[in-house]
Amino acid sequence: MNGPAEPFKIKVVEPVNLPSEQRRKEAIREAGYNTFLLLSDDVYIDLLTDSGTAAMSDNQWAGMMLGDEAYAGSKNFYHLDQAIKDVLGYNYTVPTHQGRGAEHLMYSYLVKPGQIVPRNMYFTTSKVHVELPGGKMVDTIIDEAHDPESTHPFKGNVDFKKLQGFIDTYGADKIAFVNVEMDVNMAGGQPVSMENLRKLREFCDDYKLKIIFDATRSSENAYFIREREKGYESTPIIEILREMMSYSDGCIYSSKKDCLVNIGGFLATHDKEIFEATRSMVVVYEGLHTYGGMAGRDMEAVARGLREGAQYEYLKYRINQVRYLGELLIKVGVPIVRPIGGHAVFLNALKFLPHLPRDQWPAQTLAGAIYEDSAVRTMERGAISKGRDSETGENIFPKLELVRLTIPRRVYTNTHMEYTAESVINLYGKRNEINGLKMVYEPKYLRFFQARFEKLE
Ligand code: F0G
Description:
By secondary structure, the chain is α/β, with parallel strands linked by helices. The protein has 16 helices and 14 strands.
């Protein structure tokens, strides 16, 4: 048996349908071979993202009925503020409609034109929000993170030599802040160790640099610290989280992941200046500082979900379900990113489809092929997501060309995982018959959301 059984039982279900083979072929062609452009009705198992796709608990739904929809001073905001104090240890919170709203406020305040933001691998929306105010994001993650086969237990770690290199090249005053993502999404859901965060704080103190976390998947990162880092074997997840956050000046946070809700975000900080500056901007872009684009009921669901999502038994079930899918694939030799990450299993498209050149978009191709085979929707995480170099305009081909099978929280059963694995294994058996794609439409920003492709014969 794999791991513990689910620490919940199912109270409400939503029917799903498996479209016919003919409809699947039509649907993906109509969507320009971009899984973001598929209609949800055409999808059987939706592994596009773990963002906003969780099943809420009865406790969260009960909280939704207690929404205080006052324009100002909603009591749900104060519940959220208190949950963030209790679970993450930050004194000051600014609510936003979702994570990128928080990135916008935090990064446009901290980044001046020409400045550099070192980060342990980029994330799509984060990179854009650093570039819009005139900054540039540079990579400080350890080399192992770029190697899908390395089994380093903390592939999200910051490489201090790389960070030092950027300080030597640009000067500390050109560094807007140091950005650290928890459970690094684009690296395959790979955690950062507590030791690395502790050392980073000392390092940055020497240069008087601020540290801002992307704490979006920090609870899942905390689970890995408890599982893998000496001294934390029996530490409560909340204590681990509070220690992690103590090494930062503040964070941005998309609540749509670890908080088990459909919408929401915030930034939180220990720093009164950051708080006051971003609180004055939130009213321009998001809404009053006691709702920031969320309804009162949504803030209540986030407040409850933040506490629920930091429970050890829940996290153990969650991480083990992702691992279950990954191990089904490893068993038969399908190339995936190791170790299996926190929120998703990532297929290594360069190894899966080695006959395709990079400009025929192997990961985009594979995501389309999986949909066609089984109506399982996955997502490209490679060169299309990475985009173009902001200075030269050329395509960037990152070492990682991946397809993400992202597992929504508390939504699918292990039978759904088995169905998914069967489809991927089936395709792996006939991988030589899969043809590449040609990009025929490319939007200016975050092209992976709306780009369109045609199949090459
Ligand atoms: N930071 C990280 C690490 C994320 O994964 C995301 C979103 C964001 C910030 C932005 O948050 O969507 O609430 O505005 N990731 C989603 C994904 C979209 O599918 O990985 P948001």
